[in-house]
Structure formats: structure tokens, C-alpha cells
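User: Could you check the structure of this?
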Amino acid sequence: MANEPDRAEDETAHKLMLAGMELFGQYGFKGTTTRMIAEAADSNIGSIAYYFDNKTGLYHAIARHIAQRMRDVFGFNDERPPTEASDRDQALAQLELIVRRMVRQFAQAPEARRWLMLVIREQANPSEAFDILYEETFERVHVHLTRLIAVVMDRSPDEHRVIIEAHTIMGQIVFFLVGRFPLLRRLGLEGEFPPEVVDTVEQVVISHLHALAFTTKG
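Assistant: Sure, the predicted C-alpha cells are below.
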């Protein structure tokens, strides 16, 4: 396999990954050609083979990059997950921190817009890249969120209800970005979300977290 690029030092490989991220998210794997990627990256087609072997290699490298960036957002910066919460207050505090990180990243970071559509495509029609995303990030983060929510709800983290609550919290924040255009229109706004709207989104999602503490079993 071709050498894995040093994304901090190799500008060409980095440009190819950014271009691929944008195009794969917009057109899908089959609809994106190596020529499209090379032109968008202001490079040549041969550079894709040099750094990534082929289009599939580039796609998988992008999936690994996204997985790492998502771990950064969720606070999984090493091989160990964050410290487990010992009580409801600690669990809520950790959940609030994760929510704030997610909202800020998805609302304000241009990079998130590039990779989120690719992630959504993989969830709708999984490929080998989905396995990379799931094994390196989705499962680890989802399990951690589920455990925190289980503490808040005083339930077992293995209960389907708890797992679905964790999935719902993540989905609320993701849809904030995916559905930003209808929300902006409903709010009578254009362009980017102003800071006060981002603050309100944080407050709404966090209020849902606190409401879980009052969810009864049954």
C-alpha cells in the first residue's frame, strides 16, 4: 500500500482528502471520479495513486480522518474513554460538555459540514468505510453516552430504551446541522447561525438531558 500521508506536513495529500471529503459527501463514492477529486485539489490523478493507492484507499483514509476528528469532538483523544461517571450530577456534567462540543463543532466548524454528509451517506448505505467509522468512533462514543445516560436515568446501559435515548441525543445535534437551511428560514435568518441561536440550541438539548432524570421505568 502507498505511504499513509502526514496530513500536517503533506499539503498535496491534505488537499486531496479535503476535496474527496467534499465530493464524496456531495456525489457519493460511485458518483465521484478521481479526475473530479484531482481537479478540485489542484493536483493530478497520479497523486491519488501515489498517496492512497486508488480511490477506495483515499475514501478509507478520509473515513479514518473523520473518525479521529469525531473522537476529538467527543473528547476521546487517546485509547482510553473518558472517566466513567459515579453519580447523576457527574454524568450530567459530562453529557453537557459533550453536547456543547458537538453543537459548537457542527454549527461553527466548516470542516464538519464537509464530512457530515459523507457520514450520513455511510449510515444510509454502509460500505467498508462505515466499518471504519463504527469501530473507531461510533461504537465507542455511543457506548460511553449510553453509560452516562444510564446513570442519569438510573437504568441499565443494556436497556434498549437507554440506547435509543443516547441515539436520539446525538441525532438532535446532527440534524441541527443537516437541517440548518429550513431552520434558518423558519427563524427568518440567512447565512450562518448567529451566536444566540447556537446558545439556544445548547440550552434546548441540555434541557432534554436533564428531563431524562425524571423518566420513569416502564
